[in-house]
Specification:
The chain is mostly helical and 141 residues long. Helices cover 67% and strands 9% of the residues. It has a domain of 79 residues: Arc Repressor Mutant, subunit A (Orthogonal Bundle). It is built from six helices and three strands, in the order H-H-E-H-H-E-E-H-H.
């Protein structure tokens, strides 16, 4: 098998390079890619908040991993954890004003990285790529 043209190997190379660039960009904000993922998810959620259990499911990581990421974001005052009024066992994670400001800066970097990634493709090719990537994701997730 030609490993240079192996789909999985190419996806891994792309992932590694995107992750390296993202982490380099986020370093100036003292964030990791996983922490930024939480901020992105919270930004898009109603009232900028989600139950911890929902974050865990959306991130596809263990509860302990999610709790650790949220804890570090709390220390940076980018999120706050609240008790659910209806059920004290449920923790709600909410984006703070500082978290929203941080998201805005990081989102700019994400947009720039996405533009650079797709710059060599026509709009039609970009649409085809997105469709194919969704199919690949749906095949394995």
């Amino acid at each position: 098998m030609d490993w240079q043209n192996n789909c999985g190997a190419m996806l891994k190379q792309l992932h590694d390079e995107i992750e390296r660039r993202a982490n380099n960009s986020l370093r100036s904000q003292n964030l990791t890619l996983a922490q930024m993922h939480v901020l992105l998810l919270l930004h898009d959620a109603p009232n900028h908040q989600l139950p911890l259990k929902d974050l865990e499911a959306l991130m596809h990581v263990a509860q302990s991993t999610t709790a650790g990421i949220v804890s570090r974001l709390q220390k940076k005052e980018l999120v706050q954890a609240l008790d659910d009024a209806a059920d004290q066992r449920i923790k709600i994670v909410q984006l703070t004003e500082s978290g929203l400001n941080c998201w805005q800066t990081a989102n700019k970097h994400i947009t720039e990285t996405e533009a650079a990634l797709l710059s060599g493709l026509t709009e039609t090719e970009q649409a085809i790529l997105i469709t194919l990537l969704k199919k690949l994701r749906d095949n394995v997730c």
